[in-house]
Design goal:
By secondary structure, the chain is α+β, with helices and mostly antiparallel strands. The chain has a single domain (40-168), classed as 60s Ribosomal Protein L30, Chain: A (2-Layer Sandwich), CATH 3.30.1330. The chain is built from four helices and nine strands, in the order βββββαβαβαββα. The chain has helices at residues 42-55, 74-87, 105-116, 151-165, and strands at 2-3, 13-17, 20-25, 28-34, 36-37, 67-71, 94-100, 127-129, 143-148. The strands form three sheets. It has a four-stranded mixed β-sheet. The chain has a three-stranded antiparallel β-sheet with strand order 2-3-4. The longest helix is centred in the C-terminal third of the chain and has 15 residues, at 151-165.
């Protein structure tokens, strides 16, 4: 079992509530995460960190930092969403679909909503790009953007990547 309390960045205030950590930092919105990652969830936890390290969006200003993962691969999207559930951030997830203009948004929305168990109300309006002849390898369900609008969650995740992945190589 991994105790996430051991990997909280300095300067973060921590309140322990049962098996949850309530985290706050000056100028950032408070978040609540699970304190422990169970042994059976460790592979998905580390895979999720790796997915975010490799596929997540990392360039933000200090006022717009957030967790943002964009992918068209269903398996990767499901694994990253499961990672967010394991750490306890699934209630903060919002989604957006990027698709080409020749795809039916309703069908694509139904697909991603069902595949990831995210209610349709948690989807932002879609980003629709024109279909061009050069777009030959386009996913039939577009791409999904999973977003958590929290600078503290972003800092926490990037800290875990540094401590748990990069420093152990």
């Amino acid at each position: 079992m991994l105790d996430l309390n051991d990997f909280i960045p300095s300067g973060t205030r921590i309140i322990l509530k049962n098996d949850r950590l309530v985290l706050s930092r000056s100028g950032m919105r408070k978040i609540t995460i699970h304190r422990f990652v169970k042994d059976e969830d460790l592979p998905v936890f580390f895979f999720g960190l790796g997915l975010f390290a490799g596929e997540g969006r990392h360039r933000f200003t200090n006022t717009t930092e957030r967790i943002e993962f964009i992918n068209s691969d269903i398996a990767n999207a499901k694994l990253f969403h499961k990672f967010l559930e394991i750490i306890g951030l699934e209630d903060l997830v919002r989604a957006r679909i990027h698709l080409k203009s020749d795809l039916d948004y309703g069908t694509v929305l139904d697909f991603w909503s069902n595949a990831l168990s995210i209610p349709k109300e948690k989807f932002y309006r879609p980003l629709i790009s024109p279909k061009t002849p050069s777009n030959t390898r386009v996913s039939q369900f577009g791409s999904i953007v999973l977003r958590i609008n929290s600078a503290l969650a972003f800092k926490l995740t990037t800290c875990w990547i540094q401590i748990l992945l990069v420093n152990r190589v």
